[in-house]
């Protein structure tokens, strides 16, 4: 660091970058948003979640018996640059 107020560093691994996405799980199916950039994401996306009622009973009494959970998780995608190392092998 050049000074206490500077966020510049020469080490790219010490840079903090956030690439969040939302994952929704319901009835053994996983849905995912696109990956956003930054710590204040706004996806403005709609996920259409497929729903299957047991026995295909979509009546009020049939739907009221459903106990399936919806799980919503937020993850941070880790991006790693791949660097190729060109080495010359010497045969002795």
From TrEMBL:
InterPro entries with a match to the protein in the record: C2_dom, C2_domain_sf, Tectonic-like_complex_comp
Segments forming domain C2: 16-84
Entry's Gene Ontology cellular component terms: ciliary transition zone
Pfam family, one: C2
Single Gene Ontology BP annotation: non-motile cilium assembly
Domain of life of the native organism: Eukaryota
Designated name of the protein: C2 domain-containing protein
Source organism (scientific name): Chrysemys picta bellii
